[in-house]
Amino acid sequence: MRKLALIILVAVTSQTTWADAVSDLKNYLSSTQSLQANFKQTVTSQQGKIQNSSGTLSIQRPGLFRWIYQKPFEQLIIADGKQVWLYDPDLKQATVKAMGKALESSPAALLAGNNQFERNYTLRPLPSREGIDWLEATPKQADQSFNSVKLGFSQGQLMQMELHDNFGQTTRIYFSALKINPKIDASQFRFTPPKDADVIRE
């Protein structure tokens, strides 16, 4: 009897967590047109080596985002709806690539893309951890650079992301100071490389 009760409890808990996580994601996609936040990021290699960084992000859905690494080195990643720019001020190097269909199947699509996430991802529930409800999104296209992305919500707010790539690395992103639907100047999503920058087009 105790074993049966435990099985029922686990099943109900899993369904509740799943419902909460899916509801939070759908609410984010339907109600969030813009977002600003601070973030801290840790990248753990397959050998256990950890790299820490931090910065700010701005998102205007669909398709616009400004992701700025401030520490330990400055780096800009800007999407203007047609192209994605990556600029390294220290190297004076700018890389630009078309957004295309690749972005539609990337983790950025869950934050800055359209609402058709289930077309590109297979979703499954994960256990809650420390008050955060989790779900895992696995790309339906097998040729992506990552295996899965996990999204963690608390009280309807996106708090964490975990990306697991094909090189055995785990990237964890922690969000703070979130502002939902702020007015963001359109210039934040435009980038013109400096005249002395080396521009690489992919």
TrEMBL record:
<keyword id="KW-0449">Lipoprotein</keyword>
<dbReference type="InterPro" id="IPR018323">
    <property type="entry name" value="OM_lipoprot_carrier_LolA_Pbac"/>
</dbReference>
<feature type="signal peptide">
    <location>
        <begin position="1"/>
        <end position="19"/>
    </location>
</feature>
<comment type="similarity">
    <text>Belongs to the LolA family.</text>
</comment>
<keyword id="KW-0574">Periplasm</keyword>
<keyword id="KW-0813">Transport</keyword>
<keyword id="KW-0653">Protein transport</keyword>
<keyword id="KW-0143">Chaperone</keyword>
<comment type="function">
    <text>Participates in the translocation of lipoproteins from the inner membrane to the outer membrane. Only forms a complex with a lipoprotein if the residue after the N-terminal Cys is not an aspartate (The Asp acts as a targeting signal to indicate that the lipoprotein should stay in the inner membrane).</text>
</comment>
<dbReference type="Pfam" id="PF03548">
    <property type="entry name" value="LolA"/>
</dbReference>
<dbReference type="InterPro" id="IPR004564">
    <property type="entry name" value="OM_lipoprot_carrier_LolA-like"/>
</dbReference>
<protein>
    <recommendedName>
        <fullName>Outer-membrane lipoprotein carrier protein</fullName>
    </recommendedName>
</protein>
<comment type="subunit">
    <text>Monomer.</text>
</comment>
<keyword id="KW-0732">Signal</keyword>
<dbReference type="InterPro" id="IPR029046">
    <property type="entry name" value="LolA/LolB/LppX"/>
</dbReference>
